[in-house]
Amino acid sequence: MARLVRLSMKDRLVQELRKKILTGKLEPKSRVIEQEICETYGVSRTVVREALVVLELQGLLVATPYTGTVVASISRREVEGLLLPLRVQTEQFALGEAFDALDSDYFDEAENLVRLMDRAVLDRDIDAFNEADIAFHGLIVDAAQSDTVRSVWDAIDPRIRMHFALQTGRSGALPTFVEDHRELLRVFRTGNKEESLKALGRHIIETNKPYLDYLN
Fold first, then answer.
1. pTM
2. DSSP character for 83?
């Protein structure tokens, strides 16, 4: 039995299951059965449920009423044809709505998130990088102060997380586009709305291209 030590039991279980998902040992759309995990790792059902919630928030699992929890799936075709275009449209609209009101508070928070990306690269922490990256783009969404934009973003957020986790987890490489985020902020600061919208669209598409081959 692959028992886990008592210390940080939930976190260790999250790491174990996450690794299995990203390496394909837990296949997309396969069912995740709590009792089997309890028996495999010698942990309580409470610990298993807490770990599954974390993985669901990371976009790696999907819980559906009456049918249970399954491993999430996303294909290159879905990312290229749907997710990235949706992101571009949503974020460009949000930026367009918020652009004239971007203030020092916005830029301070955005720059702090870029610093967190820098730290994640130094620490070789892919998860922390992805969280800061998603937060950076979520900040653009929040700046629009639109319930509609936020609802669209909330709907695609789990798929974005799944996409980021799979592409970086399978590549085994840390993202190298911290400077792209700094460049975005530099363009935003010029006050040129049209160029900023174009730069944001390019950023979303171009920074994801190197990783698409890691998706099925």
1. 0.78
2. I
Cα distance between residue 162 and residue 80, in whole Å? 14
Contacts of 10 (CB under 8 A, 6+ apart): 47, 50, 51, 54
Chain centroid to Cα 28, Å, comes to 17
As a CATH number, domain 76-214 is 1.20.120.530
pLDDT at 27 over 90: no
**Interior CA angle at 144 toward 103 and 128, to 5°?**
80
Identify the helix (H) or strand (E) that includes residue 147.
Answer: helix 147-171
The fold of the 9-71 domain, in CATH, is Arc Repressor Mutant, subunit A (1.10.10)
Lowest mean pLDDT among 1-10, 151-160, 181-190: 1-10
Residue 137 class from Cβ within 10 Å (0-12 exposed, 13-18 middle, 19+ buried)?
buried
